[in-house]
Amino acid sequence: MYQKHGKDSVVPIKNIERELICPICKELFTHPLILPCQHSVCHKCVRELLMINHEDSFDAGSECSLPGSPRSRVPSPSMERLDRLVRSGGSRGSISSPGWRRGSVTPRVTTIPCPGCQHDIDLGERGISMLFRNFTLESIVERYRQAARAAVAIMCNICKPPQQQEATKSCMDCKASYCNECFKLHHPWGTPKAQHEYVGPTTNFRPKVLMCPEHEMEKVNMYCEVCKRPVCHLCKLGGSHANHKVTSMSSAYKILKEKLAKSIHYLISKEDQVRTQITELEQLINQTEENGQLAERRANEHFERLFETLQERKSEMLRSIEQSRNRRLDQLKGQVEEYQGMLENSGLVGYAQEVLKETDQSCFVQTAKQLHVRIQKATESLRTFHPAADPCFDEFVLDTSREETLLKEMCFGGVPDPPLIDLSNSRVYNEASICWRLSDDHLPTDHHVLEYRRWDGEDNGVWRATDRVYGPSTVVSDLEPDSRYSFRVRSCRNSMFSPYSPEVNFHTPPAPAFGFLFSDKCGFSTERLILNKRRDSVESVAGMAFLLAAERVQTGSYIGLDYIIGDTGISQGRHYWAFKVEPYSYMVKVGVASDTKLLEWFHNPRDTSSPRYDHDSGHDSGSEDACYELSQPFTLLTLGMGKLFIPKASSSSSVSTANAASGDPGSRMLPMPQRLGVCLDYEACRVYFYDADTMRCLYERQVDCSGTMYPAFGLMGSGKVQLEEFIATKRLTF
User: What are the boundaries of the region Disordered (predicted)?
Assistant: First the structure.
């Protein structure tokens, strides 16, 4: 038995068995229902868990009243969650409560976890009666059953044994199977039954028309694009889909069928890639098996070493205790013998008594002197009695609480998930501020370790690690300028390290970061520019002053730019700063300007209504594209409307695009970078503009650095410039 896919390709129906298994009962689907999340579950599996009365009849509309047969159950996590919900729902509800009625098919619990995606599914007040039968899946399951029992025929429902014949047709209207004779008998020509639809023998009788489960007498003829399910016109007119976007069923059928066909065609075209990846996965399975066995052997080795060390220490300690005990016993026993000698008629006293019996004076004196010394010592020992040894063995009592705690904290079943470096919040200058995030369901971690390496350095890309980090970010200092670095991070929990995060690469700027804030003193226009409290963001608003300036112009006009500069100047060295220009900005000019040029702009009167006046170009040409050869005390690059405009190339400037020297304006127009960087080399009198994310030089030019140079910004119309947090923080810290 084969399932057709397109004109030429066929798939053996037996090869798709895993797609036909209910995730709850682990058997072939029986009357599957489509949940709102688009996963399918057997009708009986959901009904048995949700219904108060298991004998209630199932009525899901005019075509949904076929119960399933009893089956054994295979426990699963989804079943356990459903059981808990049913038990908790049973304790909260009551048959006599409002909304519940005896014999009703409304479930006591209307929220269940989908066994496919584990999302909670709210079935609503009508419960499973609101769900569609998955007739397509049901038909495929039936074809699979027929292929599996190819030799088992479908018998006629009218014939009676033993004369029962094999069925040759099935009537979709009568929902019965017939042999040839019975079909002719029950569908005679000239009667309405002769017009019934019949197919080959089957046990799967699907309806001719799909009816709406909410409005049981209405056919579904539209498709809700919000809920992703068929609906009828009453659902759209005043039902739950009234405000949803719907399309005709024919249109939805065409679109979804084309999408599915294209997806299937794409997968089929990638069959070689799939087989290659299957081979890779099989190799990973083998590697996992081998590495798991290797990990077991290493773990055994580690614990064996621990056991050996503990055994050695144990033997040494027991030996020390035994030696100390024997020594003390010898000392105490010797003291006992000494004291026993002080008793009358025994030991030392008895010996002294015998000496006293000596009558020869010379012999007595010869022996008594030494004896008297011994008697004196015994007398002194008697007055100052001290045991010869301490019976307490406190010095051998071990405090292993710290070691026991360490051993108990060793966790071998909870390896933390690898963190992910957050590219949107990480910034790299001469210092790198690297941020990372953990998965939503991550286990608690003790600390993190960030590692980095320089690709083009003398250390040949050797990884260097930071100290332990106890938060989701850290700063790496002393990075080399204009160099490429890789970063990775891993987490640690109970001495168990997670795998490394995927490596991310950053390119450091060509110069150290220059910290500054926007100046609210020099030339700042409070009428048209809004500066935030931190002074790291400035926004231009087209207010009344802008309109009044434009009102004086009768013909074309260049309305003047509103300038704002950094609060710190540059008089030596190489410096780099970065910022973001909002994509909605009408026109923003960014770059550098000398203190003398700024005085001219801010303090000399200017006629903003002159159509020929443009102080930005360096002369009164009225042409933004004019090519100027002489070194100017300022350089500004124009951004706006989501674009970046490269000035015409000259002998003193270069650009990154090959066509920038041409006169075609389109060739000098680039997409606006998300972040723009500016580098000023004061001694070389040169300024560079970079895409701050990729560190690609977009434009460079000679500039006259005869005075103090300031970061300069000009805004016209609506627009906003936001300094990088690292740039502003560096200035605030200073």
Answer: 60-79
For 11, the token pair is 């798939």
What span, in angstroms and rounded, lies between the C-alpha atoms of 543 and 530? 11
pLDDT number for residue 728: 67
Q: 3-state SS string over 367-412?
A: HHHHHHHHHHHHHHHHHCCCCCCCCCCHHHCCCCHHHHHHHHHCCC
Q: Which amino acid is at 356?
A: L
Residue type, 467: D
The first and second tokens of residue 486, run together, are 């890789």
Q: Give residue 628's identity as a one-letter amino acid code.
A: Y
Peptide bond into 162 cis (omega under 30): yes
SS3 content of the chain, % helix, strand, coil (to 5): 30, 20, 45
Q: How far apart are the first and last CA of the chain?
A: 78
Beta bridge partners of 714: 563, 589
Instruction: List phi, psi (to 5°) of 319.
Output: -65, -40
Q: How far apart are CA 487 and CA 492, in angstroms?
A: 17
Q: Residue 499 CB: number of other CB atoms within 10 A? A: 13
Nearest to 731 by CA among 530, 554, 579: 579
In angstroms, the CA 455 to CA 506 distance is 10
- What is the rounded distance in angstroms from the CA atom of residue 231 to the CA atom of residue 210? 10
Instruction: Count Cα neighbours of 571 within 13 Å in the Cβ-side half-sphere.
Output: 5
Tell me the CB-side half-sphere exposure of residue 162, using CA atoms within 13 A: 0
5-26 pLDDT, tens digit each: 444 444 555 567 777 778 877 7
Beta bridge partners of 715: 562, 588
What's the CA gap between 562 and 273, in Å, rounded? 57
pLDDT range class, residue 552, cuts 50, 70, 90: low
Ramachandran region, residue 642 (left: φ > 0; alpha: ψ -120 to 50; beta: rest): left
Instruction: Please state, in angstroms and rounded to a whole number, the distance separating the CA atoms of residues 452 and 450.
Output: 7
